């Protein structure tokens, strides 16, 4: 069982700019907080600092749970320090006067989301394979990334991949139900809906590493075509229904082949073949395995690396 009280953090009696480093400029913002560029006083190193914004009106219990999720994000990131393709987690900071939490990470100057459209096919493939290998390394530590997407891939000046944002990362065998003191870790919200596999929407418990594998297939689509293939891998999305063979399309119309409430995993369909035909020929076989709808048939990343070696 993970003891959250033993996860180290730096407690500051003054704000960041007085105690930790010089604020330079904002880097971005998301649902869970904003990110800024700082230069540390200690060694003049450039670092990215994520500032967590707790939801308003939290109860004491909700606040405690929120802080545990922040500590888990730092803890998992620190466990991955030193792996190729992973942005280093440096410090977790609690600023006492404002009662706020801040996560200090390695700074990478380039953003795949901003550069994707200007990259060559060979550079895009290199970045994808680096991302795939970094995610495989995460799995080999019995962990799960949980939020692979274009926006979470940064690049160094040399073009090397650095994965960021471990707010959805957790142990591979973590239970899904609400955390209590006897639960080993606090699971975060798993990923971004467009990158989630179909089983996430059908069952409570699922193989989270297999969910990462599916997300790699969606990522490959987004990197080459500029967007995920659908909004959600569920019967509620027409593009996914066509991919699954639950629906056919003709001249300006669609026809349902099976009741939307009947969940069956197709091994092949016209929609699946059409989608995979959009990928570069060199990765179509890989994309086929990554976007296997049936989690029981979907390969692990280790198995895929052995098969394609």
TrEMBL record:
Domain Protein kinase: 21-309
Listed Pfam families: Pkinase (PF00069)
GO BP field: intracellular signal transduction
Keyword Hydrolase: no
A single GO molecular function term of this UniProt record: ATP binding
Keyword vocabulary terms for this entry: ATP-binding, Kinase, Nucleotide-binding, Serine/threonine-protein kinase, Transferase
Organism from which the protein derives: Endocarpon pusillum
Protein name listed in UniProt: Protein kinase domain-containing protein
Any GO CC annotation of this UniProt entry: cytoplasm
InterPro entries from the UniProt entry: Kinase-like_dom_sf, Prot_kinase_dom, Protein_kinase_ATP_BS
PROSITE patterns, per database record: PROTEIN_KINASE_ATP, PROTEIN_KINASE_DOM
Protein family per UniProt: Belongs to the protein kinase superfamily. CAMK Ser/Thr protein kinase family. NIM1 subfamily.
Binding-site positions, ATP: 50
């Amino acid at each position: 069982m993970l003891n959250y009280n033993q996860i180290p953090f730096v407690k500051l009696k003054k704000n960041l700019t007085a105690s930790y480093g010089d604020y330079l400029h904002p880097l971005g913002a998301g649902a869970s907080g904003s990110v800024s560029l700082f230069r540390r006083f200690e060694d003049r190193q450039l670092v990215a600092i994520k500032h967590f914004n707790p939801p308003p009106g939290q109860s004491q219990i909700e606040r405690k749970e929120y802080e545990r999720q922040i500590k888990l994000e730092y803890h998992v990131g620190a466990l991955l320090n030193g792996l190729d393709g992973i942005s280093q987690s440096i410090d977790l900071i609690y600023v006492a006067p404002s009662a706020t939490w801040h996560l200090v990470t390695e700074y990478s100057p380039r953003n795949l989301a901003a550069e994707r459209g200007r990259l060559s096919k060979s550079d895009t493939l290199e970045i994808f394979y680096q991302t795939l290998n970094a995610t495989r390394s995460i799995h080999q530590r019995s962990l799960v990334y949980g939020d692979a997407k274009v926006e979470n891939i940064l690049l160094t000046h040399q073009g090397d991949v650095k994965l960021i944002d471990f707010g959805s990362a957790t142990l591979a065998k973590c239970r899904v139900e609400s955390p209590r003191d006897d639960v080993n870790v606090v699971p975060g919200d798993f990923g971004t809906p467009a990158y989630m596999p179909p089983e996430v929407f059908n069952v409570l418990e699922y193989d989270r590493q297999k969910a990462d594998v599916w997300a790699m297939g969606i990522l490959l689509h987004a990197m080459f075509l500029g967007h995920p293939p659908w909004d959600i891998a569920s019967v509620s999305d027409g593009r996914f229904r066509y991919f699954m063979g639950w629906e056919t399309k003709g001249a300006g119309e669609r026809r349902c082949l099976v009741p939307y409430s009947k969940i069956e995993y197709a091994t092949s369909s016209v929609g699946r073949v059409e989608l995979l035909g959009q990928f570069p020929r060199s990765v179509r076989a890989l994309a086929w395995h990554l976007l296997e709808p049936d989690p029981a048939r979907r390969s692990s990343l280790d198995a895929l690396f052995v098969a394609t070696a």
